[in-house]
Structure formats: structure tokens, C-alpha cells
Amino acid sequence: MAACRPSRPSPSPSPYLVQKGPYQALYDGGGRLQRLLYDPKGRGKAQLLAFYAPDGRLLRAEIDTDGDDVVDRWEFFDANGSVEKVGLARCRPGQADEWWFPADAGGIVRVERDEDGDGRVDHWIQRARAQIVLEEFDTDGDGRPDQRVARDASPPTRRPCARVAAPIPRR
Ligand SMILES: [Ca+2]
Ligand SMILES: [Ca+2]
Question: Ligand 2 centre from 9 Cα, in Å?
């Protein structure tokens, strides 16, 4: 009768990198693309980083749109490969403080802002047919809107960027 021996885990192939021009692709041991990096100037600073699911689907991307080596745009994709939401560093380098939610029919249906930079949304902008129809504000800091302003075709409320206690240093 064979004794039951603990089976040794079979060695799984290691992840590996493929470099081609400004692109660097990271594959898992099974040859599936995990991450794609775009470094157009070859400085070891990614201008775009894209992350993939095991089934090959694009999950999200981190982008430095202005080339200052700090990510300022985050894109998230749904199961169909469509953009689910986009985060922007509007007032705070390296930190998303504004979010765009695309409408099924195209355009943006909602914008959410974290005006005071505490990581919580406090300003909601609802849009319909490319126009702002409603703005909501959380003025008491409980994370829920308590002030509503209906809009016709007027532009959204512009609030200056609140000061940040410890800003991320820019180079
Ligand atoms: Ca940037
Ligand atoms: Ca906030």
C-alpha cells in the first residue's frame, strides 16, 4: 500500500520581461501578458502602465499625460473593455481627486470630485445630453450630499483647489 506522501509543488515557470523599443511587457509563466509599460524617452519612467487580467482583458491603465513623471490619469475598464471610469489628479499630483463616469451613449454622465483632498467625494455633477443638470455637495463631511443645486445650461461650480497639507514634491 502506497504511503500518502505530500506532493511537491511542481515548479511553475517564472514571469519574464520582453523589451521592444519603448515598450516593456511583463508576462506570467504561462505566457499571458500581465503588464505593459510605455517609456517613450527610455528614461526608465513609464508614461503609461497598463494592467491585464489573466484572460487578456485590459483592467486599468495609469498615465502620465504631461510627462512630469507623476501619474495624473487612471482609467478603469469593465468586462466588455469599455471605460468604466477615469480618475484625474486635478489639484493633487499623484492622487485622483476627480472622477469621470462615461454614459452608455457616449459623453460623461457624472463627475465626482474630492475638493478637499481627504480621499472622499464631496462634489457630484450630474450631466444629461452634454449639459450639467444637477450639482450636489457634501458640506458637513459625512460623505453624503446635503446641498443640491439644479442647473440649466450654466457651467459647473468652480472651486479653487484646496491647499494640501503635505504635497507630493514635484521634480
Ligand atoms: Ca503627470
Ligand atoms: Ca473630500
Answer: 48
